[in-house]
Amino acid sequence: MDRAALAPVIARTPLARLRWAAADGWTVTLRGLTHWVREPGTLIGSLAFPVMMVLMFGYFFGGAMQVPGGGNYREFLVPGMFVMTMVFGMGETVTAVAADKNRGVTSRFRTMPMAPSAVVVGRAVTDMLSSLLALAVLFATGLAIGWDAHGTLGETTLAVGLLLLLRFALVWAGIYLGLLMKGPEGITMVQTLEFPIGFLTSAFVAPSTMPGWLGTIAEWNPLSSTVLAVRELFGNPGFGGDSWIAQHALLMAVVWPVILCAVFFPLSVRRFRNLTS
């Protein structure tokens, strides 16, 4: 048998290479979706955790919380939990990427006749689909406990778009960090840091209730801009503020993720290309 006839045909034209990359990226995405079916516990756990957070903060602590300008604390909380769910997803990205790298799966992919972008693109698509599912579950939970989106359909759609834009940026941060990790200790450190980074925002309490210097840090946390922007778009209480960053939350909810993408996307691509093991 002629071995040349069995060799894969490498795309040459830009359009053919794009189709090749899309097909290979979708194949890797299907691999991730297959893991959901074969290991549903991981997916269920990732969906249940933010729901439990909403219920705990909404019912255990909600009665003691004061919303700036008045209003229902659960309506204040739920948009913040949307953002926190996007943040928690980064830990899942880091874990999945690091596991593939450390088990040699990524190196195996790199020896195969597939588009170089397929591995990272497939991971990104899988995680974005996971985030859409998590948002749907959290939306249903919010509606069940009394939260509602009071804005127009366009404003609600824009709010969801901002949440997914933030998640997209965090996907690339997670891919890069996952490619750096060499052991479970590093993964645990990243997952642990999600909590102080996420809590040092306006997601759970208003920065005005914090000491001055800490409130300023919380306001300038990139996550806070998305929190404030989606609260405003959903028509929920607590989106106001006197500082420049609070007054321009909608703008910065776009700028911060774009900056994160500009930093971590090229770092992820370069790190993937330079992997030696």
Summarize it.
The chain has 277 residues and is mainly alpha-helical. The chain is built from 12 helices and no strands.
Explain this structure:
By secondary structure, this protein is mainly alpha-helical. The chain has one domain. The chain has twelve helices and no strands. The longest helix has 30 residues, at 73-102. The protein is elongated. The chain starts with a helix and ends with a helix.
Contiguous low-pLDDT stretches (5 residues minimum) are 1-7
Percent strand equals under 5%
Average of per-residue pLDDT values: 85
- Which range best describes the helical content: under 10%, 10-25%, 25-40%, 40-55%, 55-70% or over 70%? over 70%
Strand segment tally: 0
The outline comes out as elongated
Number of distinct helices: 12
Number of domains: 1
Secondary-structure content class: mainly alpha
Q: Provide the gyration radius in Å.
A: 21 Å
Largest sheet descriptor: none
Distance between the termini: 34 Å
| Helix-strand sequence | HHHHHHHHHHHH
